[in-house]
Amino acid sequence: MRSILLLLLAALGAGSAAADVIAVIGTGRVGSALGTEFAELGHTIVYGSRDPSTAAVNELVDRTAGDARATTQAEAVKGADVVILAVPGMLAGDITKNLGDLSGKIIIDPTNPLNFANDKIRHGVDTSNGEIIQAVAADAYVVKAFNVLSWQYMIDPGSSGGPISIPLAGNDPDAKAKVAELVSSLDLHPIDVGPIDHSRWLEGMAVLLIHNNFGPLPAFNLHLREIE
Ligand SMILES: NC(=O)c1ccc[n+]([C@@H]2O[C@H](COP(=O)([O-])OP(=O)(O)OC[C@H]3O[C@@H](n4cnc5c(N)ncnc54)[C@H](OP(=O)(O)O)[C@@H]3O)[C@@H](O)[C@H]2O)c1
């Protein structure tokens, strides 16, 4: 459906103005889902991988539309407008440190720092990854987004059976507006929930989402309705 829309926009001469270079750091489930979906919408995807030469990364690049390519994590962010940090949550701060200069870039943070012990899922940091990443990349614009949604619905939101909200937390209104546009383009519903330190509550929501996903309680997606 999105491909058809994209072809239609291209035929009308529209769509290219909003195209970004998006560095997707991490080529796992979330990186693959968001990379392939944003590529279909006309954005140029540069995957950042610990080993960009593996068969799995090559296969991902092959199935990503446009001029997608893969390189190292630090190389991928150079020249990117937007960086998506699709990496293990407990390592996100350290991985960000190793990316080099992120000044002026929008960083989308879908990560959840989780500890799994004694059959319990726990939020694994004192503050939040959103705050940790913003502190590491002080001159970048960090927006917490996509952390309370399983990767399958990033690819196929319609399979959820109803609207899905993506809460956004960040300190910069322009960066949040830009991320809201990107979220909307995936047929998801963005909702601004305040500054980056509210990431801790969003990361707490992810604990609940994952807890219920493993049953027996009902799995859920978020749908937050704005009051008119
Ligand atoms: N899975 C979901 O449905 C979901 C939903 C919302 C949010 N999240 C959050 O999003 C983040 C990514 O989740 P995921 O499910 O995509 O994880 P994943 O499938 O394990 O992928 C993470 C990727 O990060 C890279 N990576 C792994 N170890 C690394 C290290 N030591 N240093 C640097 N890079 C490393 C790897 O890519 P390379 O091999 O290419 O380096 C790996 O494929 C997590 O924080 C998770 O909590 C997940």
Record the SSE blueprint.
Elements: H1 2-11, E1 21-25, H2 29-40, E2 44-48, H3 55-62, E3 69-71, H4 73-77, E4 82-85, H5 92-97, E5 106-109, E6 114-117, E7 120-123, H6 129-136, E8 141-144, H7 151-155, E9 165-170, H8 173-185, E10 189-192, H9 199-213
Parallel strand pairs: 1-2, 1-4, 2-3, 4-5, 5-8, 9-10
Antiparallel strand pairs: 6-7, 8-9
The structure holds NADP nicotinamide-adenine-dinucleotide phosphate.
NADP nicotinamide-adenine-dinucleotide phosphate (NAP) is lined by residues 26-31, 49-50, 57, 86-89, 91, 95, 110-112, 146-147, 149-151.
Mean pLDDT: 93
- Ends distance: 30 Å
Q: Biggest sheet: strands side by side, in what order? A: 3-2-1-4-5-8-9-10
Number of helices: 9
Bound molecules: NADP nicotinamide-adenine-dinucleotide phosphate
Say how many strands there are.
10
Query: What is the radius of gyration computed over CA atoms, rounded to a whole number of angstroms?
Result: 17 Å
What's the CATH topology name? Answer: Rossmann fold
Taken from the alpha-carbon principal axes, the silhouette is globular
Range of strand content: 15-25%
Order of helices and strands: HEHEHEHEHEEEHEHEHEH
Proper CATH architecture:
3-Layer(aba) Sandwich
CATH 4th-level superfamily: NAD(P)-binding Rossmann-like Domain
